[in-house]
Give the backbone structure.
Amino acid sequence: MPRADLRRSASDKTGVGRGNFKEWAPLEITYQQEIIAPIDVVFSFLNDDEKMKLWMEGLESTEYPNGENAENPVGTEFIQIIREGGLTQQYTGMVTEYEPPTLLAVKLQSNAFQINVTYELTDLGRKTQLDYHCELVFASLFHRIVGFLFCGLTKRILNTQMKKLSLLAEQESVRRPPPAE
């Protein structure tokens, strides 16, 4: 059964700045799910901007101000426009790791927080295991408190998005022709 887990790191540090972000212990979110689809299909839903819109609720666009490097996207900067509760938010981001079809990691940032997200995929033959991990680092104690107050909502949104990702990948997998022998 898929499950999102929210936890706090054991060692809280305070006072040391990292840009606009304090060295608070990050809020960690993990999620694991087995998807009945080949790894390349699942990866395509993480890597393709148009397919991401299908499962990432509110994602309106992804723009690449310095151009997109599809061959080696590590270091590529992007801007995502996401509609959240009727408001449009802009997040700046960068691809931090990219090893298709097993690994994609990005860093997103707003004025309130920085989030480091890692998607790791494991090929299980006709199935794929998705391991999701993110660390939220907040810009202030106020933002950290608000983040903890809304952690239940964050967990529900993650569960909804991952279930939708799974369903879409499984549906595409059924429509694909079998591999040539």
The first strand starts at residue 3 and ends at 8.
